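Protein chain data
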Amino acid sequence: MAKILTLDVTSFKFADNETDLSFRALQNGVIISDSTLSATIKIKQVDIGYLKSVSAKWVDKHIVISSGDLSDLPIGSYLLELWLSSSSGYEIYPDSGFVKLSINQNATGISGNLISSITLGEFQQQFSDLAKELIDNLPEGKVGPQGEKGDTGPQGVQGIQGERGEQGEQGQQGVQGVAGKDFSIAETFPSVASMSGDGLTKGDFVMISSTVEDPDNAKLYLWNGTEFTFIADMSGATGIKGERGEQGIQGEQGIKGDTGPQGPQGIQGVQGDKGDKGDKGDKGDKGDQGIQGIQGLAGRDGSKTLYLHTAWSYSADGTDRFTTFYPNLNLLSNSRLQSGNITPFVAMNNAVLTINSNVKGLDVYCSGGAVLYSQGINQGIIPATAGNQYTISVKVINTGTVEIKDFKLQFGFYNSAGDGIAYLNKSFSIPADRKVYSLSFTYTAPANTTGIRCYYLDVASSANVSHTFTIYDMKAEFGSTATPWMPSATEVKTSDYPNYIGTYSDDIQAGSTNPSYYTWSMIRGNDGKDAVQNPVGSVVLNISNSSSGYTTGTWVNIGSAVIGSTTVYYWKRTT
């Protein structure tokens, strides 16, 4: 059972006592929402070990604690896990590793203190016990006269720091300072001795501009209103760019050389006379019999079942988008993107999306994060029915330099109130080879499902490793088979459907995926009447099992197929 724990806020500043930290526990993709379970957050540090536990409360399927519950923790990084208890025992989330939380320094610089080996209460109790033991072991005696007051003893060891007091009120904002000047050289002087503040204002920079032999050359000074202050020697820096010189006078154009003479063409030779035709030679002897040819393929066994195989394509040779499955319509709208048409897709967890007009898809940049941190895209909820099978498919190209080890296709199933019922996914590994990978995932909608959402996720398998990939031809459809990409019912045009059908028959039940096995014909409607357009050998289809719809020639029914919920019949002209 895969147990996952997520946290919506992974850091806050020290002394922030009003931030809610919201956890969500999932088991096999299903959100844990049983509020009768007692929830406790356990906290540890790598170098110290277990520190404390905090009781959590249930809020809308989330498990929540406040940053105020952690006010006794100083600045640092912490590891958290969730314990859910019932009468039968404990369940701990996640089942491997921890959720990371950081407490960052605030503007005051106060960072807090933590006594990891003994708490303040324990220290006070041990000190009291020791004092009592010393008093109990003192021998009894008579009380003597009070002695004179002794000298003040040396200062004792500093005590343990007390609890942090409440934050004081914020002071009034100070008066804004005068804006500083932009850096520029206000004046240059030929020597230090010649420097003068005449015409300068406080904050102006001046520079010595003499010769490279002068040790004071390129020294920078600041005028403070009364005197100059040396700032830096700029002699090693790039010199001040001088003014652009005037363009020089264009030189005279050179004299054009003479063209050399062309050589004379040679004289064509005289063509010779055509020779007389030679006499026919004698017939040669009969040659030896040739080697017997290879035996042909065996004919079909008449006792075996004959199967009709059907395929579809967008070209007459069957090579353009060949498929043995007639494509279903897309349940997603706007799944092929043009420039600026990014509206149907939502970036998750700061993923950066850019239109890729070459493939009509998206270029996605995921910056990475902690292990199991998910980034990517999703789309809005589309209608769905419980018990039906749905398939999500997509093409992905890893355009980065590192392998994407955990790319997930995920279904989110939702009820009529819009609440998530379950999140199921399938993981893929995509090498950094810039090849196209066609991915798909099928799942049956659970009870109470009224809608689904498709997710395309890059889940971090290593901390803080960024990925880039291109994603296109996003599709969701009914059934358990991923068919070629198609638009939605509201977008589809006649030209989007395959316009060629291929058929062949043999006694093998499974059809070939080689287009050359099939005889290809253009798919035609029922309104064609001209026999010239349907020569002998043509194949047409309609929804009648008794007639091809044509009166010219002889037509034979050669088979049928179910497309969606409709049965179509194939008719071939034989004469």
